[in-house]
């Protein structure tokens, strides 16, 4: 078969015999490919590399920042202002001491700063693909032209024969030709923590799931032990890792709710501003009967355009989000993408893994059944402290010696180690075996001591076919303690007569029981009856129905060490000891977190690869689901169309036996239903779903680099309760963003209306220059807005449903508030402006006639300070609030007021900003008019309270 006729990856390699796979790829298991075949296939398939789809360049990202409609308008304002200054410079009409182009320079500086701010946020390139590439091996050993050679992994082609051994990272997907004791860790790809025993001789059904394909290996996984010869079947983007890379790059990032709202805000502000400019210019032309004052009208228009754009808003939002990330880090939530802080507040559905997130990722024995009795076991985690209870009553070990006997089997038939590290009990080895050591510890059986009493001399290791393991131990006498005539520990004295060896067996309860002919009762043994068998199996089913993982234990006295490979004959005629049921116990804090979710209108959903009975038990215990709720399995999900899944996705709170690739479909189905989804994940296969989700949440402890790079947030403690805390913080951030938007834009509308009114009511000139407006928007608006960004949460922040992520920025009365306050602001400022103009143009006035403009400037700035104090709460009066609960607002008000007065009373600043000296009477009038703003807002709260309404 030529390279041009090779299968296009459609072959289901795990369903083929080895010889058939070799024929399809025209390869030879002993000699591999010839140099000519390798060259042909390299040309056809390309190098064994993950390909990256070209994204936007750094320059394109930077230029995109200046497509923002508000920045475009500011650029236009800067150019017109510069043109007017150039004309004035040429005509010699500049005022004495006036610096040309200062408005242009200041506006362009703001535009550039905002552009850089946006670029820094957006230019953080996605590194998920780079993390995927790290998972590929740089060098690989292959058989080519009947010789063993070492080549770069990127030179691999389908049909190559690759050699594997322990410690190697697998460089391509392949079908096993032969293997010896091969174990591969595929956790990054499948999510399963345990290494997989591979078998070349198997031929599997086509529909076999990825994690159960025991006759193939995958790129990016790791050989734990053994060796193998592998036929390379897929390279580059056709590997399972390549498919993930393609999915990852196919997921397009949607703008966050905040980004959408800011775009909408810019469109509304700019459109409104242009309409108002047109009205003012048209009104001025009509009033003057021509274009004789067009320069003055243009200056008014420029000032209005600058006034309407909240130049400080992007910086304030960025700082607010950054402060939110700091608070979240203290709660073990690391935010990778800044807008995700606010996005969390919109989450309606949290899809969470079970293991380690909802549970402790520590197997804990819940109950044991022995001697026809079932005991409940108390205790948490791996700490070997707890009680044994029968019918709710604590019992002593002396009353039930069979507990000690079963515990010895748990400790001896065990390959793990239980130890205390930094005050915490931890396990080295398999979590299931860790749970058994903890159980033994609760019964006073310590593995270290029993290693000397029953030293291991042989074993029959666990295999997926046998579903059990056995350990053969030599019986040693003891020097102290109550002992039988042979000096044997009392816990096992009933096991033996004169035999020098003991074999302990653990495994599948059904298969282990089937090999038992006797049963251990107290300190004696008897023949196991059919009734006893049925009772044991019924107890096993009962434990399993509660979601417990159940193991059966047995023992057998031996006269000699059985020969290697004799497990089939040796593991017969066993003595039944009992059942042990364990569970990855829920985290204690998760129940309260789930309840908080419910109260906050957020639906928690469990997605796990575990058995559906276990999933249901944990979900019901935590309150995620109710008794009788439907559990959707991966097989059922696989058979569903996207439309069928969409119809069911709001009805299912538990997904069991789900593979990571199913998560992407679940997220997409929820999103099509209008849900705002947070999704957790830790494996490589989770990366596309994490990227698709509105909030992708990676695990900090167990997560792969790929999943972390694809996520918006990383849980440093892998805890579900941390997600809920972060969601609460997101709501607080969004509430505070709305608060300072109300504050900033209410004043901006007031500024625009005041500027527009000046020529219409016959006052000469523009009351505010673009530079003065920039000062107000950046300093007198910006500093208090930053202080409002750290306002503490309202008490009911998690007692209400999430606000719709698609709601307008002006929703829930914010737009009407801005217009209402802007109009009041303008009325107060226009009244002051009229009085100040008359005052400074009155006969005998000693100051500069232009001083009225400085009075307007000062009044607008100081009125904003009263607005900042009053807007801290929508409903509570200022006197009802603790002024020190947000000390930053007080500090911002004081500092901003001092800075404003410096522009009036410090000569260099006065010259630069074009202000004039105010006497005490004029300053007092400014402060008096400014105070009216505070009085109005407080009066509104009282009015709404009387009317029984709640403010925005």
Q: Could you explain how this protein is built, in words?
A:
The chain has about 950 residues and is of the alpha+beta class. It contains 34 helices and 28 strands. The strands form four sheets. Strands 10, 11, 12, 13, 16, 17, 18, 19, 20, 21 and 22 form an eleven-stranded mixed β-sheet that branches. It has an eight-stranded mixed β-sheet with strand order 8-28-27-26-9-23-25-24, sandwiched between helices. Strands 1, 2, 3, 4, 5, 6 and 7 form a seven-stranded antiparallel β-sheet that branches. Helix 26 links the parallel strand 27 and strand 28. Helix 4 runs antiparallel to helix 5 and helix 27 packs antiparallel against helix 29. About 45% of the residues are buried. The N terminus is likely disordered.
Shape: elongated
Measured by DSSP, the beta-strand proportion falls in: 15-25%
Q: What profile does the largest beta sheet have?
A: 11 strands, mixed
Residue stretches low in confidence (pLDDT < 50, at least 5 long) are: 1-6, 479-485
Distance between the termini: 74 Å
What's the helix count? 34
Oligomer type: single chain
Average pLDDT number: 86
Number of strands: 28
The amount of helix comes to 40-55%
Rounded to an integer in angstroms, the radius of gyration calculated over CA atoms is 37 Å
Structural class category: alpha+beta
Notable features of this structure?
952 residues; alpha+beta; 11-stranded mixed sheet; 8-stranded mixed sheet; 17% strand; disordered N terminus
